[in-house]
Amino acid sequence: MAELSYESTSRELATDQGVLRYHEAGDGPPLLMLHGSGPGVTGWRNYRGNLAAFSRHFRCLVLELPGFGVSDPVEGHPMVTAPAAVARFLDGLGLRQVDVIGNSMGGIVGTRFALDDPERVRRLVTIGGIGRNLYSPGPGEGIRLLTEFTDNPTREGLVRWLHSMVYDPALVTEELIAERWRLATDPQALENARAMYGSAAFAARAGAAAASDEAPYWAMLHKLRARTLITWGRDDRVSPLDMSILPMRTIPRAELHTFPDCGHWVMIEQKAAWESAVLAFLTREETA
């Protein structure tokens, strides 16, 4: 297999709302991989270490969602506009149905998309993030540190947030810090981050939610038809493990796999074990 570098996997798709950028590797059934949020995030940075394993079995499509400094931006809150971007992306590639892996915010986006258009998602894998705090304070420590960085973007604040993402602090290398800092401080990326995680944005969303009669996505999980695997780091300080209880109990036939000594980035921190569990789930023969 040829080396799966950034350059060799990079692709672009022109749509009626700008260019969607993505990475593609492998042949086989299509597997859409959706990244999380946070300073300096990209789909490539979330999943570059997993492409070798998954591209042996799937046509991996790592979409860069609008609003994070890679694909062309669109108007609106990045999380709200993401499901429509997913639909545009799949339509543009002529894909009717895919499997989906979503990390944190990407898991919420994949879940919303599967709820809105159930025929298009065969199987869904989430990595932390979905659900709701039941016993732990919300928002979690990692989200609070993310808000602090977004309000006041300093290198020290970025490092504090990065440490909240992992169980093993050795993963927060100088290379990782520098890589995340470059994109996190891009003016457009920072503006989008403030729209999502700034303290003013949080307050505005809380007020809007209190005044709205619309049910939150987590209250609709019982309607999810895609066979679902929920994966979680036992030591997640961004979305604590108790958040998994609601989706595990309400999503029909959902499976929950918890990984020890692991924070929010399960696909990175427990790479081999996570890849093994997810591949077994995605390649398992359908049962009634």
From TrEMBL:
GO molecular function, one term: hydrolase activity
Claim: Flavoprotein is one of the keywords in the record: no
InterPro entries named among the record's database cross-references: AB_hydrolase_1, AB_hydrolase_fold, AB_hydrolase_sf, Epox_hydrolase-like
Transmembrane segments: none
Domain AB hydrolase-1: 29-269
Keywords, comma-separated and alphabetical: Hydrolase
GO CC aspect terms: membrane
Pfam families: Abhydrolase_1
Keyword Isomerase among UniProt keywords: no
Classification via PANTHER family: AB HYDROLASE SUPERFAMILY PROTEIN YCLE (PTHR43798:SF31), MONOACYLGLYCEROL LIPASE (PTHR43798)
The protein's name in its UniProt record: Alpha/beta fold hydrolase
Source organism of this protein record: Streptomyces diacarni
